[in-house]
């Protein structure tokens, strides 16, 4: 059986007790943390900047997966990422919908230069073929299975067609990217996702709203 990566989304964590929340992740053999940055522009919600991430990385050893749901303006493109890069994330994900081709190229260069996994996200209404020219360079593709913006939404199963498309392309062309899914993941939807070819799953409310974090993590892997 393939080892599925589970990345808890700290968006659903209790921020008044983040230390305990990270401890729950650690005790559940979690290796990755998913960090949702929202700007109240690209999405209708506002979350956190780099300071909380800095505190997380200084007190733990997780691989960090930053999911930027933001619009980034061209003149400050590189500057915007500076404080996040200092946190040494393993992977950075930008939404394909917010970037011009030139900006995708800049983002790719930035990731290469800083030894960060290059990842892009696609919202539910975005066609997956938009990524065709980048598939050979991507380290990860994040398929959104809810509209980006909020935790606790219902899984949109139609996006599994995109997962299948990515899985087929990966196999046929020996591409290296990981297929990640984000939104509405629970013990039922994780099974559908894994069957379609997902290799990494983000889960927020399903894990953090539970009293038995470890059991829930296992239920996702063994779905
Ligand atoms: C939504 C975020 C997700 C969210 C997932 O825009 O990108 O990472 O936190 O939360 P759940 O698992 O509750 O759908
Ligand atoms: Zn996310």
Automatic annotation (TrEMBL):
One example of the protein's molecular function in GO is: D-ribulose-phosphate 3-epimerase activity
> Which InterPro entries does the record cross-reference, listed alphabetically?
Aldolase_TIM (IPR013785), Ribul_P_3_epim (IPR026019), Ribul_P_3_epim-like (IPR000056), RibuloseP-bd_barrel (IPR011060)
Transmembrane portions of the chain:
none
Sorted alphabetically, the keyword list is: Carbohydrate metabolism, Iron, Isomerase, Manganese, Metal-binding, Zinc
Q: What is its EC number?
A: 5.1.3.1
Looking up Gene3D superfamilies in the UniProt record yields: Aldolase class I
Q: What superkingdom does the record give?
A: Bacteria
* One Pfam short name: Ribul_P_3_epim
Reactions accelerated catalytically:
D-ribulose 5-phosphate = D-xylulose 5-phosphate
Write down the CDD domains for this protein, in alphabetical order.
RPE
| GO BP terms in the entry | carbohydrate metabolic process; pentose-phosphate shunt
| Cofactor(s) of this protein | Fe(2+); Co(2+); Zn(2+); Mn(2+)
Listed NCBIfam families: PRK05581.1-4, rpe
Oligomeric state and interaction partners are given as: Homodimer.
Q: Which family does it belong to?
A: Belongs to the ribulose-phosphate 3-epimerase family.
* PANTHER family noted in UniProt: RIBULOSE-5-PHOSPHATE-3-EPIMERASE
Query: Know the name of this protein?
Result: Ribulose-phosphate 3-epimerase
Taxonomic source organism: Mesoplasma chauliocola
Give the taxonomic lineage as stored in the record. Answer: Bacteria, Bacillati, Mycoplasmatota, Mollicutes, Entomoplasmatales
